[in-house]
Design a protein that fits this description.
The chain is of the alpha+beta class. The chain has two domains: 1-138, Arc Repressor Mutant, subunit A; 145-235, SH3 type barrels. It has helices spanning 8-22, 39-47, 62-85, 90-100, 108-115, 132-135, 167-175, 206-209, and strands spanning 51-54, 57-60, 145-147, 156-162, 183-188, 193-197, 200-204, 212-218. The strands form two sheets. It has a six-stranded antiparallel beta sheet. A two-stranded antiparallel ribbon has the order 1-2. A hairpin with a 2-residue loop joins strand 1 and strand 2 (57-60). The longest helix is centred in the first third of the chain and has 24 residues, at 62-85. 30% of the residues are buried.
């Protein structure tokens, strides 16, 4: 789809029509009225064939549907990026994403979608319209970035980010040297997730393994190593404990 170079106000109108219609089943909302939107922006959308006015109410054309879906997609991907990667609070992320969305030109949004593993919903639970990267049949195994918990033993890459749902998790990983840009390799998944960073072996539970995201280097078929004999002394006898990641 070509970039239509819409004004920010015109994009906001398209997204508003989409979002109001999306929530109609649970919370019926009045239709968008042409008189309630800036005349210049409405004229811009009508000229480009994206909306039609019927009895004073605005609705999306077929092309308008595609454009509105793309705008909503970029905005919700921006929210995911801000919350999951930059650890921005949901309230601030929503406000910021509305502005950030305008910077995510087509193509960049697919890169972010792939980075995040093709998320299905935004942080508030609203569906993210699929993009070309999703419709092309992207699967979990083809992610550029995956959670450590989703890797296979022997797979390796570099830490992309640590999702900051719990501050203590981030602090602990930083203390262990598990910071963005650090090479990492998954060694085993059971009974604990054990990974290697530099010369150290670290054991964590699944909850923490789901918060560590890895930019993959390739697909290794190396068989998992023996599960216990080589564990470093700090983790001997502790790998079965599951107390919020504490060892």
């Amino acid at each position: 789809m070509p970039d239509r170079n819409l004004s920010e106000r015109a994009e906001e109108i398209l997204a508003g029509i989409w979002q109001r219609r999306e929530s109609e089943e649970e919370h019926p909302a009045p239709a968008d009225r042409a008189g309630e939107a800036p005349e210049e922006a409405v004229g811009e959308l009508e000229e480009k064939g994206l909306v039609r006015e019927t009895s004073g109410q605005l609705s999306l054309t077929d092309e308008g549907e595609k454009e509105a879906a793309a705008i909503v997609r970029r905005e919700r991907l921006a929210e995911r990026l801000l919350v999951d990667v930059l650890n921005v609070g949901k309230g601030v992320a929503t406000e910021t994403a509305c502005k950030f969305e305008h910077l995510l030109r087509r193509g960049i949004d697919d890169e972010i979608c792939t980075l995040l593993g093709h998320p299905k919903v935004c942080p508030h639970g609203s569906p993210i319209p699929p993009g070309e990267c999703c419709r092309a049949g992207a699967q979990e195994a083809s992610r550029v970035v995956s959670a450590l918990a989703d890797l296979l033993p022997g797979q390796e890459g570099v830490i992309a980010y640590i999702r900051g749902r719990r501050r203590e998790t981030v602090q602990r990983m930083m203390a262990l040297g598990a910071v963005p840009g650090t090479p990492i390799r998954l060694l085993q998944k059971s009974p604990s997730y054990v990974f290697q960073i530099e010369q150290s072996h670290v054991a964590v539970d699944r909850e923490i393994a789901r918060d560590i995201y890895v930019r993959l280097r390739g697909r290794s078929t190396v068989a998992p190593p023996p599960p216990t004999s080589w564990l470093p002394r700090p983790f001997w006898g502790k790998r079965h404990r599951r107390g919020r990641g504490r060892r």
